[in-house]
Design a protein that fits this description.
14% strand, alpha/beta, single chain, 5-stranded parallel beta sheet, 7 strands
C-alpha cells in the first residue's frame, strides 16, 4: 500500500502556473529554466512589456505573476494593481534589482504578495513562488527593515480605523502582531470561523485586500499614537 501511495503522490501534486514579466529576454529565459526545472512549476506566458502583461495575465489566469519592477512602459507595481483589480486570485511577486523602500511600500499597497531582490538565491526564489502560490504573503528579509521604517514615517490612519468596533480593533491589533486566525481565536476565546468573519469585515472597512496591508495601517496608527501627546491614552 505504501508503494502505491508513494508513486501516486508526485502525480497528484498540483502544477503552479506562472507568468513572467521582464524586459530582458535573458532574465526571462533564466527564470523560466529555473522554475520549470522544478517539475511542479509551469511558465504559461511571458512578456517584456507592462501593457502586454496587463492584457495577457488576466486572460491566462496564472497562479503567480512574477513582475519586474522597472519597465520601459510602466512598472510591475502598476501591472500588479491592475491585474489584482481584475482578478484578485492571481498572486504577484515584484522582482527588482533596486532596494527601494518607497517602491516596496507601493508594491505591498498594490496587493503584491512578495517583493524579492534579483540577488536572491535560486532556491529561495523558487520557495517564494511556491509559498505565494499557496496563499502566503512574503517579504524578502533584506528589505523588511525598510518597510518598517516607511510604516513608522507614514501619516496617521485614525480616519480609516475610527469606524472599527472595539472587537474589530482588537482583532486588527492581533493581525498586526502576525497571529493566524486560529491563534487569534484562542487569544480572544472565539470560534475560528468568527475570527475569519471579523478579519474579512476589517479588511473591507479598511479598503484593503490582505492582512499585510491591514497590519501596515495598524502599525501606522500605533506609531502615530505614541508620538502624539497623550497618545497612550487615546481612545479611552
Amino acid at each position: 500500500m505504501s508503494e502505491v501511495d508513494g508513486s501516486a503522490g508526485p502525480r497528484e501534486r498540483p502544477v503552479i502556473r506562472v507568468y513572467l514579466l521582464d524586459d530582458h529576454e535573458l532574465v526571462r529565459r533564466g527564470t523560466r529554466d529555473l522554475l520549470e526545472s522544478q517539475g511542479d512549476i509551469e511558465v504559461v506566458g511571458e512578456s517584456g512589456s507592462a501593457q502586454e502583461a496587463a492584457r495577457r495575465i488576466p486572460a491566462l489566469r496564472p497562479d503567480v505573476a512574477v513582475l519586474d519592477q522597472r519597465l520601459p512602459d510602466g512598472s510591475g507595481v502598476e501591472v500588479c494593481r491592475h491585474v489584482r483589480s481584475v482578478d484578485p486570485t492571481i498572486a504577484a511577486v515584484i522582482l527588482t534589482s533596486y532596494d527601494e523602500d518607497e517602491a516596496l511600500f507601493a508594491a505591498i499597497m498594490a496587493g503584491a504578495a512578495g517583493y524579492v531582490l534579483k540577488q536572491v538565491k535560486g532556491n529561495d526564489f523558487v520557495e517564494t513562488v511556491r509559498r505565494v502560490a499557496a496563499g502566503q504573503s512574503m517579504l524578502d528579509p533584506a528589505v523588511t527593515a525598510q518597510v518598517l521604517a516607511r510604516v513608522r514615517e507614514g501619516p496617521p490612519e485614525d480616519s480609516v480605523t475610527k469606524h472599527l468596533t472595539a472587537k474589530q480593533s482588537q482583532v486588527l491589533d492581533l493581525v498586526r502582531e502576525g497571529l493566524t486566525n486560529r491563534q487569534i481565536a484562542e487569544r480572544l476565546d472565539l470560534a475560528e470561523k468568527t475570527v475569519k468573519n471579523y478579519v474579512s469585515t476589517v479588511l473591507g472597512k479598511l479598503g484593503v485586500e490582505s492582512r499585510t496591508q491591514a497590519a501596515i495601517i495598524a502599525t501606522r496608527q500605533r506609531e502615530s499614537g505614541r508620538r502624539r501627546p497623550g497618545g497612550s491614552s487615546a481612545g479611552r
